[in-house]
Write a structure and sequence with these properties.
- By secondary structure, the protein is an alpha+beta fold.
- It has one domain (4-154).
- 49% of the residues lie in helices and 25% in strands.
- The protein has 5 helices and 5 strands.
- It has helices at 4-31, 37-51, 95-108, 132-135, 138-154, and strands spanning 55-65, 68-79, 83-88, 112-117, 124-128.
- A 5-stranded mixed sheet has the order 1-2-3-4-5, with helices on both faces.
- Helix 1 crosses helix 2 (37-51).
- The chain is globular.
Length: 158
């Protein structure tokens, strides 16, 4: 069994990421490569619904600097309030795309994301975790703790 953060992430998120990737594979197998990203996004939303996977599509995320809102970005998907899913339909994924997903993880205080590319003959996917420097930052840890506390409150039955 894996130890450390990778092992914990696998235990906590492995089943869900497996279901997400399986859904993406079904979409890719049916539609193939070469379509615009928004088509894959819509098809994946349909597949998530068929599989009973809860999701928010094009979820807005507000970014703050020094306590001031400086803009909003939109996640392709936030699945079960836990996993960020970023879609691409490109010949290849670049480091810029990887860093984009890390920025999303950091801004939301989430622990795992999937970067999925429908643009190649075989579906490409990568599980993305925040780098150690991010994981060890006080700001990131505070966001993760706030998110986890909010999840606990949602399940409080008192």
């Amino acid at each position: 069994m894996k130890s450390g953060i990778g092992g914990r992430i696998q235990r906590e998120y492995g089943g869900l990421t497996y279901r997400i990737i399986g859904s993406a594979m079904r979409v890719h197998r049916t539609l193939g490569p070469g379509l615009p990203e928004r088509i894959y996004q819509r098809a994946l939303a349909v597949e998530f619904g068929r599989q009973g996977i809860r999701f928010e599509r094009e979820k807005p995320v507000e970014v703050f600097y020094a306590g001031v809102s400086v803009g909003t970005f939109y996640l392709d998907f936030l699945v079960e309030d836990r996993v960020i899913v970023e879609l691409k339909a490109l010949d290849q994924i670049s480091n810029d795309h990887y860093h984009q997903v890390i920025s999303y993880l950091t801004a939301l205080g989430r622990e795992v994301a999937l970067l999925i590319n429908f643009g190649t003959a075989s579906l490409e996917y990568k599980r993305v975790l925040p780098p150690l420097a991010v994981q060890n930052s006080d700001a990131y840890r505070a966001r993760v703790e706030a998110w986890r506390a909010g999840r606990r409150q949602c399940f409080d039955t008192d």
